[in-house]
Amino acid sequence: MLPDIREATPADIDAAVATLQAAFIDYPLTRHTLPDDGHPERLAEFQRLLLTDIGLPHGRIWVSSDHSAVAMWTTPATDAAAFAALGPRLGELAGDRAAAASAVEQVLAPHRPATPTWFLSTVGVHPASQGRGLGRAVIEPGLRAADAENATAYLETALESNVRRYERFGFTVTAEVALPDNGPTAWTMHRPPQ
């Protein structure tokens, strides 16, 4: 039986960060944009910033009651200035990979929707809990919310194996992008309102 899925509160953040850190520890994009030096700590801080400075105040976050799965969305109401305010701290976390991280943002930006969008910013299932349907369980509330607003859903992934998973939700690939500085390939995916 799956744990309950609910919206996150500040009390969930530490456990959610631990799950995302475990889920993303070898993810090609964060390996490319965060240094090897202190990588686990930088990754955890990056995810914490997303959740506390963007997700809680400006987006929506769903977690499983056991904290083994997390999904964070930005919404059409998310203030872009919130991301800009994080710039200096994100640059510090990127360290000697800051130029690579900036180049990734520049090359992906033209593929991002210009219309009101629900953006699946981060989603992860703890490796010990994968394969049980928890990813689907924490993603679906965001898709329902996007559909209720008649808004497009959007995501980016740097794992080809994820493409088929997201296609099952109704996403389609809109671009396959070779990331600069010998980075991985990224796929941008859109899902029209259902």
Topology readout:
Layout: E1 5-7, H1 13-24, H2 28-33, H3 39-58, E2 59-64, E3 69-74, H4 80-94, H5 98-108, E4 117-125, H6 134-148, E5 152-157, H7 160-167, E6 172-178, E7 185-191
Parallel strand pairs: 4-5
Antiparallel strand pairs: 1-2, 2-3, 3-4, 5-7, 6-7
Helix pairs in contact: 1-3, 3-4
Keywords: Acyltransferase, Transferase
Domain N-acetyltransferase: 3-194
GO molecular function: acyltransferase activity
What brief labels describe this structure?
single chain; 194 residues; alpha+beta; Aminopeptidase; seven-stranded mixed beta sheet; 7 helices; 7 strands; 45% helix; globular; acyltransferase; Acyl_CoA_acyltransferase; EC 2.3.-.-
What does this structure look like?
The protein has 194 residues and is α+β, with helices and mostly antiparallel strands. The chain has a single domain, classed as Aminopeptidase (3-Layer(aba) Sandwich). The chain is 45% helix and 23% strand. α1 crosses α3 and α3 packs antiparallel against α4. The longest helix has 20 residues. It is globular and about 40 Å long. It starts with a strand and ends with a strand. The model has no long low-confidence stretch (mean pLDDT 95).
